[in-house]
Structures are given as structure tokens and as C-alpha cells.
């Protein structure tokens, strides 16, 4: 079967080739219904913008890509005078690891964190400019990834593998949260716990919740079907979660486990604003191990995941795939470790 061209897409979508080009280059200039028709035709045909095909054939772009949802905390963007180093998020650490590894291999790194125009637009723009790319899980539909993976290497980061034909890296989210929950129960004697989860479509947050459930089951504690509160993944979401938990019958729990560090820091800020002491009144934990967790007071107990190593391995897998397109796909599970600090009642070494 011949490789589909822009002409094939234009014919199937009933538009001009100029319109197809604008969909990928300047999507905001195309009406949404027309843009969706073009993207659907491209997906059905298996079309990838020609720039990526040329780059893949010649290895001439010298660029690798990283795509991820824009999880920027609004407070981080708008706060004036904050120390930038204190605002390093999970994605920033992955980027650092990937950028260093790419530079070592002689590649530049192209980063796209905007979903304006939708995931298909994000993929289209990225694919036309890189030799291969890594993508955070659930950033785009599996069907879209399948199309692009036929033409250039794709590595999926985080979450369980959704496509066995793609290279994939994740961290031990379930194991880490289970061990952290066990620590609160066994080392600190806490049994009245609450888990603050992330969005239901976040595979990492869900894996952490299931690790929490497993630890509760092992300890003979009630096993919840859902997190006590579901929020986004920002500091403001952590604050809002604390407000909701405070109004539950019985008031605040004795221990609050947040699905990520950003929420946990926001939760501690809200507790402090209301005179609740951490950890004397409520123990607080997070997950990720971002630098901000070491800087807050009390310092945040968390599960430390190897974020920079995750980015570096993504580059390694892309390079291997560029060298040998027919090799079997790899799925890598990275271990995590507990960082026991003051927010749970531990004394740091």
C-alpha cells in the first residue's frame, strides 16, 4: 500500500490541500468542524505530515520531541516574586532528564505542552518536526498514537501500557503508595486516613489510589471504592480538598495522603491558615519528590520517583528505535523510594 499523501487527505475530507496544510500549521484559522473532518480523514488514512517523513528518511532533523498536558499550576504562573526554583514541577524534572540525554546523543529537544486545538493538532505539529517523540500517557487518543507510531518512534511515559506495540516507561506508583500508607499505619499508628485523588483519567493517580486501597486492606482498615476527595493536580486543588474534608462528619482525618506533591503542599498551606498543625494534628504526605517538597515547612514526606531518569530513558528508547525499527517493544518499570520527612512525624536524617 502506498504512503497516503496530503492529496489523499484533501480528497477524503472534501477540502483543498491548502486547507489540510493550514490544519497542521495554523489550526486556529480553520473552522472547528472542517479541522475535525481533516484530522479524521488523516487518521483513517494513516497520514503523517510530510515533514516527519522526510526527517525520518534522512535523519536530518536532529530533534526529539516531548508532548505532555499543560499541568501548570495557576498559582505558579501568577505569583509575583516567588523563587523560581521552588516551583519546579514533575514535568520540569522529566524535561531536564530528557534534555540532557538528548544533548549527549547529539539531538535537540522540542517540547509541546499546549493542547490548544486538541491532541491531534498537538501530534500533527510535533510529528512534522522531529525524528521521534515521547508522550505522557493519555495526552492523546490511542488511535492517533497508533497512526504516528507507524512512521516514527514513539515512547509513552507513565501510566500502564495501553498499546503493547509501543515502547513504554512507568514508575511503581502502586508499590510506592502502598508502602507509604503502611508507614503511616505501622510507624505512626494512624488509622483514620483520607486519600485525595487526582482526576479519574490520570493513570498514575489511579494507580496510587489502588496502592492506598491495598495497604488499607492489609491493615484491616475500611477499603474505599473512591478517593475521599477528587481534585486536579495543583496546589489550589490541595487547598480545596482540605476545605471539603473539614466539613465531613467527624472533621479532618488524622492522616491525609495526596496523589501528588503539589496538592500536598497546597493542603498544608490551607491547614496552616486554619491553625491546624502538621504533623501534630494531621500528618500529610505527597507523591513525586519535586524540590518544592524539601523547601516547605514542615518538609514533605513523599514517594520519590526518578523523574530525570524517566526522561533520560525515554531518549535511550527513542535512539534504539531509530537505530532498529523492528526490535521488540520494551516496557520498563522504574522503582520508587520513600522520603520520610517531618510532615508525617519523622525526623529527617
The helix count comes to: 14
Biggest sheet details: 6 strands, parallel
What share of residues are in beta strands? Answer: 5-15%
Instruction: Output mean pLDDT.
Output: 85
Looking at the structure, what is the overall shape? elongated
CATH-scheme architecture of the largest domain: 3-Layer(aba) Sandwich
Question: What strand line-up does the widest sheet have?
Answer: 2-1-3-4-5-11
- Helical coverage, percent range: 40-55%
Order of helices and strands: HHHHEHHEHEHEEHEHEHEHEHEHEE
Alpha carbon gyration radius: 22 Å
What's the CATH first level of the largest domain? Alpha Beta
Cα distance spanning the termini = 63 Å
Could you state the CATH homologous superfamily of the largest domain? Response regulator
Could you tell me the CATH topology label of the largest domain. Answer: Rossmann fold
Question: What structural category characterises the helix and strand content?
Answer: alpha/beta
Low-confidence stretches: 52-59, 73-88
Our count of domains comes out at 2
Q: Tally the beta strands.
A: 12
What does this protein structure show overall?
With 349 residues, the chain is of the alpha/beta class. The chain folds into two domains: 18-27 and 49-171 and 308-336, Response regulator (Rossmann fold), CATH 3.40.50; 173-305 and 339-344, Response regulator (Rossmann fold). It has helices at residues 6-13, 17-25, 32-45, 50-58, 74-78, 90-104, 119-127, 142-149, 173-188, 203-219, 235-246, 261-273, 292-295, 307-323; strands at residues 63-67, 108-112, 132-136, 154-157, 167-171, 193-197, 229-230, 255-258, 283-285, 302-304, 331-334, 337-339. The chain has a six-stranded parallel β-sheet, sandwiched between helices. The chain has a four-stranded parallel β-sheet with strand order 7-6-8-9, sandwiched between helices. A two-stranded antiparallel sheet has the order 10-12. Helix 1 crosses helix 2 (17-25), helix 1 crosses helix 3 and helix 11 packs across helix 12 (261-273). It is elongated and about 65 Å long.
Amino acid at each position: 500500500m502506498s504512503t497516503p499523501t496530503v492529496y489523499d487527505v484533501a480528497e477524503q475530507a472534501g477540502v483543498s490541500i491548502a486547507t489540510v496544510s493550514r490544519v497542521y500549521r495554523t489550526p486556529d484559522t480553520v473552522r472547528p468542524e472542517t479541522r475535525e473532518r481533516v484530522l479524521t480523514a488523516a487518521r483513517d488514512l494513516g497520514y503523517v505530515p510530510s515533514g516527519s517523513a522526510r526527517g525520518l528518511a534522512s535523519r536530518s532533523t536532529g530533534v526529539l520531541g516531548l508532548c505532555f498536558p499543560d499541568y501548570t499550576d495557576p498559582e505558579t504562573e501568577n505569583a509575583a516574586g516567588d523563587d523560581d526554583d521552588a516551583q519546579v514541577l514533575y514535568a520540569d524534572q522529566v524535561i531536564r532528564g530528557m534534555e540532557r540525554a538528548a544533548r549527549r546523543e547529539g539531538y535537540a529537544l522540542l517540547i509541546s505542552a499546549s493542547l490548544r486545538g486538541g491532541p491531534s493538532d498537538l501530534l500533527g505539529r510535533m510529528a512534522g518536526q522531529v525524528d521521534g517523540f515521547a508522550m505522557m500517557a493519555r495526552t492523546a487518543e490511542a488511535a492517533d498514537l497508533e497512526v504516528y507510531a507507524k512512521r516514527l518512534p514513539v515512547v509513552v511515559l507513565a501510566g500502564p501500557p495501553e498499546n503493547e506495540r509501543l515502547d513504554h516507561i512507568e514508575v511503581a506508583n502502586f508499590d510506592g503508595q502502598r508502602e507509604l500508607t503502611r508507614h503511616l499505619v505501622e510507624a505512626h499508628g494512624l488509622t483514620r486516613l483520607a486519600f485525595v485523588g487526582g482526576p479519574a483519567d490520570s493513570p498514575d493517580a489511579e494507580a496510587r489510589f489502588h496502592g492506598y486501597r491495598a495497604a488499607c486492606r492489609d491493615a484491616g482498615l475500611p477499603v474505599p471504592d473512591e478517593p475521599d476527595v477528587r481534585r486536579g493536580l495543583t496546589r489550589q486543588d490541595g487547598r480545596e480538598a482540605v476545605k471539603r474534608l473539614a466539613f465531613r462528619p467527624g472533621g479532618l482525618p488524622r492522616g491525609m495522603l495526596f496523589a501528588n506533591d503539589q496538592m500536598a503542599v497546597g493542603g498544608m498551606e490551607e491547614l496552616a491558615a486554619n491553625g491546624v498543625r502538621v504533623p501534630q494534628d494531621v500528618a500529610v504526605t505527597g507523591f513525586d519528590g519535586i524540590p518544592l517538597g524539601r523547601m516547605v515547612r514542615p518538609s514533605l514526606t513523599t514517594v520519590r520517583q526518578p523523574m530525570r531518569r524517566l526522561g533520560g530513558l525515554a531518549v535511550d528508547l527513542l535512539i534504539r528505535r531509530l537505530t532498529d525499527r523492528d526490535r521488540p517493544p520494551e516496557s520498563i518499570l522504574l522503582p520508587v523510594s520513600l522520603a520520610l520527612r517531618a510532615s508525617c512525624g519523622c525526623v529527617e536524617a
